[in-house]
Amino acid sequence: MALLLCFLFFSLIASSATACDRCVHQSKAAYFSKASALSSGACGYGSLAIGFGGGHLAAAVPSIYKDGAGCGACFQIRCKNANLCTKEGTRVIVTDLNPNNRTDFVLSSRAFRAMARKGADKDILKLGIVDVEYKRVPCEYKSQNLAVRVEESSQKSNYLAIKILYQGGQTEIVAIDVAQVGSSNWGFLTRNYGAVWNTSRVPAGALQFRFVVTAGYDGKWIWAKSVLPSDWKPGVTYDSGVQIDDIAQEGCSPCDISTWK
């Protein structure tokens, strides 16, 4: 019932790449000296995160983390010190929660250095914290579909925990259903934490999933018709056969991105 209400609440219209899909925000950013601090973070990606975006990782404040829905979101961040930093900045992926509201992001040192001009990476590290502006951007995974990793805690017929990986586009997953392939008897998963979802009602046989994805004003279903084989195994990552590439609008005002294109 909850998923049905969610479905009715969100309009199933195509996301738009126009208007306010690139709102620019002002804040500060700091860095962790070790990327492992971010890979072991609240999203639950573990060591897999080190391979995301070349290690350009970020912990984000609760308003961006969104109780885990913001895990895997991509942002373009640049520092505002024109003497030290490039106009392009760097792209990061959210892998952790930053509870310190002094900064919207805490970056991996690699991502932090990547904002600097050539030869100025040591200088920017010495600052420790910098003024930044940032915007959300679509995540892009060339030749890589959305993937479902079965967590080691999963047990056939008793418990299924999955981790969502490589989500493209500019959306958030807000609900997941599961059913046996060919069946219309859907059950729902609950977000355990971060990118990890679980259920104690595991259908038998091969499994299909459907996702409700949304951000800003838009929402829609994504249906992966055959994801887990009947002999699925804990610790294995499975290709969903689909990728999310929608770009949903944000509610910024005024909608002016002229300072950063």
UniProtKB/TrEMBL annotation:
Keywords, A to Z? Secreted, Signal
Q: What Gene Ontology terms describe where this protein resides (cellular component)?
A: extracellular region; plant-type cell wall; plasmodesma
Give the location in the cell: Secreted
Q: Does the keyword Signal apply?
A: yes
Which residues are in the Expansin-like CBD domain? 158-240
Q: Quick check: keyword Metal-binding in the entry? A: no
An individual GO BP term? anatomical structure morphogenesis
Q: What Pfam families does UniProt report for this protein, alphabetically?
A: DPBB_1, Expansin_C
Q: Residues in domain Expansin-like EG45?
A: 40-144
Which first-to-last residue range defines the signal peptide?
A: 1-19
Q: Which SMART domains match?
A: DPBB_1
The UniProt similarity line reads: Belongs to the expansin family.
Q: What is this protein called?
A: Expansin-like A1
Organism name: Morus notabilis
